Amino acid sequence: MPVNDRLNPLSTVTEQQVALLEKKIDDLKAEYILFFNGDTRQPPEKKREDLEKAIRKLIYGGSKSPKMEMIIQNLAQRFSLYNNMWLKKLNELEIGTPLTRARKAAPPKPGREKETHELYLTLNDEETFERFAAVYREMLPESGASEKERDQVIESIKTKMLTHNLVEARVTFSRQKGKLNIRIKK
User: Got the DSSP string for 58-79?
Assistant: First the structure.
């Protein structure tokens, strides 16, 4: 047994485990995207549960260096964000909430042809998404957005942020030629 392994026997194993779990999270994310897009019939629930157990085992297993603790914590938080989103979407599917795209906007009010707004969103603060919904509702034509559509748009933005591994983002709303455009920037 090499000297380094005796001093910290979990060091290389833990780094390898973290790298493997990172890949498994990315693979699972791709599988859930396929499921929610309707490309597969069953959600990868067994894989999600197995991954959750593996991460929990890594968190609570043995002593680790402060650096590895932070790396493992970041991995666990990343998985937790995805896991919560997947479970929420699965719950919505079970209760019958459709995963549909937002309806097309009607012609804008006169004088609103080139209007823009910019917001800062963070997954750690639900209030930023409430402000997002308020601006979204304001930018829509007079018909506005229903509560259901509002929730779908918020979930869509959260999904895009998670897909692109963004915890924080700037969102720009613009209206040009009667169309509402929403852009996410780092």
Answer: HHHSS---HHHHHHHHHHHHHH
Position 144 in a domain: yes
Maximum Cα interatomic distance, the chain, rounded to a whole number of Å: 77
Among the candidates 67, 95, 123, a domain finishes at: 95
With beta carbons less than 8 A apart as the criterion, state whether 24 and 51 touch. yes
Number of domains in the chain: 2
**Integer Cα distance of 179 and 166 in angstroms:** 26
Inter-residue contact 116 to 172 (CB < 8 Å): yes
Cβ partners under 8 Å of residue 35, min gap 6:
42, 43, 44
Residue indicated by tokens 């549909």:
100
Domain span at 41 = 3-95
Segment 101-123, tens digit of pLDDT: 433 444 444 544 457 778 888 77
- pLDDT bin (cut points 50, 70, 90) of residue 11 is low
